[in-house]
Design brief:
With about 250 residues, the chain is an alpha/beta fold. The chain has 9 helices and 7 strands, in the order H-H-H-E-H-E-H-E-H-E-H-E-H-H-E-E. Helix 5 (about 125-135) links the parallel strand 2 and strand 3.
Length: about 250
């Protein structure tokens, strides 16, 4: 039976793939040992299932943290693919508000491609670091509440709202988006993708508590849930991308 994604020996089907591997695989000694251990573990099938899901979550987290020591900040796939996605949307004349800008690295990168960027964050220490490290004529940083700033008259100056890893921290993301929606035409939203692996849904089924991607997250959005929140907030998705465990969406008002 033909399965998409495979090249069948002696067939005319040839499917482009990201990675090609030899048909004969090298024996993975550690995996062989763990298979043997699995047979003698004094646990029920469900207990083993839960154990392996927990171990996968732990090692996935360790691997992700290690990736940030392996790649330079600008070369990390998270950053490079976010940049490619955004550059397809941004226009030179746009004015951008980067909400929750932290140390300002994304704000600085965006300022090289648009007319103006303002980074806003509640954390005074992070804003101080951003001001010291990143300086451009079209880039500024503010410490405080972004919505208050917009209501004081800042809304006239912006086209795009950047929400990079913001919504998953909020108890009321739908109302948050409704409050900001009147002030912008375009919205960039980036956050973890609960649907990045079917194992997360297995975790739900077996009652695992290891469902979060960061300790201060209060929501881990699957794709349908995020689309529902955006729709109720009056936003329409123009383009979406799902890579490296992240959801990236370019949205506009309905």
């Amino acid at each position: 039976m033909y399965r998409p994604g495979l090249i069948l020996a002696g067939s005319s089907y040839a499917i482009d793939m990201g990675v090609k591997v030899p048909r004969k695989k090298r024996r993975v000694v550690l995996l062989s040992l763990l298979y043997r251990l699995n047979r003698v573990l004094p646990l029920t099938r469900l207990q083993k299932f839960k154990l392996y899901l927990d171990l996968e979550w732990i090692f996935d987290r360790l691997a992700m943290e290690a990736s940030f020591t392996h790649y330079a900040p600008d070369d990390h796939p998270h950053r490079s693919f976010a940049s490619k996605f955004l550059l397809r949307q941004l226009e030179p004349g746009m004015r951008v508000l980067d909400l929750g800008c932290a140390k300002g690295d994304m704000s600085y990168a965006l300022a090289q491609h648009v007319e103006q960027v303002v980074g806003v964050d509640h954390n005074a220490g992070l804003i101080s670091l951003a001001k010291e490290q990143y300086q451009r004529p079209n880039l500024s940083f503010l410490q405080g509440d972004a919505l208050e700033y917009l209501r004081r008259g800042g809304a006239a100056h912006f086209d795009v709202l950047i929400l990079s890893h913001i919504l998953e921290h909020l108890d009321g993301p739908e109302q948050f988006l409704k409050d900001f929606s009147p002030h912008f035409k375009w919205f960039y939203i980036e956050l973890p993708d609960f649907d990045k692996t079917y194992l997360n849904h297995y975790r739900l089924d077996v009652g695992s508590s290891l469902l979060w991607t960061d300790e201060d997250h209060v929501v881990e959005f699957d794709r349908e849930e995020l689309m529902d929140v955006l729709g109720k907030a009056g936003l329409r998705i123009v383009e979406a991308e799902y890579r490296f465990g992240l959801q990236r969406l370019w949205c506009t008002r309905n």
